[in-house]
Amino acid sequence: MAEENRSKRMTFEDSMFMLFAVLLAINAIQRLPLIAQEQLGIDVGGKYLIASAALSQDTPLGTPVNAPEGTPFYETPNASLEPVGTFPPGTALFLSDGPEAVTFGGGRYWYVEDTETGDIGWVPESALVREGAGGIHPDTKRGTKIRALMDTSIWDLPGTITPLGQIKKGEQGEIGDGPLTHKGARWWYVDRVKSDIDGWIPEAALTLSTDTSWRKGSRVRAVQNTDLFERAGGGAVVGSLTEDEQGKITGGPVNIGESYWWLVAPPVGTEGWVAETALEEGGIQGWFKGLLATVLVIGTILTIALLGGIVYATIRTNQVRVKETHRIRDAIPKIMHSKRNDRWDKVLTHVSSENPNDWRLAIIEADVMLDELIMRMGYMGTTLGERLKQIVKGDMRTLDAAWEAHRVRNQVAHAGSDFILTQREAKRVIDLYGAVFEEFKFI
To answer: pTM of whole model > 0.70?
Structure first.
């Protein structure tokens, strides 16, 4: 009966530990994308949006662009010729002609102009990005989170010759100072999260980093009736979204004051800018995130409850175990004290005999007494070995002695005369039985 109660308690504890582990696993799964992005550098959907930073065939002439890494420029769109000059890193340019597709080396070339120096020439499209694509503007505050739009260099000061190092696309940092204007473009001092090498980077190579994972094409839902504005931060109203109506991200983010703004296309009507606080994840991802949030809340409550249950169950188990041990020890002397002494005297007589057969008999008789003791303690099973397996050391200090003595008894019983037993060994085994009996006042 005691063992049955103990098994029930252990099953209850095991169930609570299993539920607790499942809840921890769910929480870990939710954090895997963030861990992969932040710690391992794996792009799993991104925490930033490249808002049309790259040029395309349809990019209009006059568009402001930048060469964050610098680039040579040519008299004709042909990199096989000697360049006529070089635009330094971070040079602000604008498109004045192109694009021209070239066969040699592949890619497209644009005719660009540096308004500060008047330098003009053809440069490969791969060296250019749009100015302002990252949503950063002159009033962007220190401490604003940013990410690198591209693999680019980081500099001690704008215009210096040798860079301090490299920053990888998607790497995160914070605005630490700036802006400084150099070669017609703004530069910002970036405090990097995962490196001690901080420095200045052209604005064109940076983008705002928000707490969302939205990209161009992401579906969002309005959390309330909200207007769509002609520009980030306000202006004329060009449309609206009703509560729970979904739209699609087409641009952004742009940081205005304390808020991020996104360009959103509604199902019907003109696209417009909306503050991030008025939006939430839409589509299947929004539904799934909502489900995970609900599971997380319920899981947190259950975790607290289960932890309380585990503590309570552990305390109660220890209390019951102590009570059972005391009950067993108090009950045993009242049951067969005199008879057990008589039987133990016979065991001692046998082991003191000069006859080897009496030594074997002493061990077998002592094992019978041990079996009787264990059954009276409430442990069930078809054999003494099975009953001993159910005992924990907290209930029986001499459990190892009982096991060792019982194993010798099995060798004596099964091997017979083939088992070499000396009187010295027999007395040692009887002493093991005696230690168990004395613990429970059985002799």
So the answer is: no
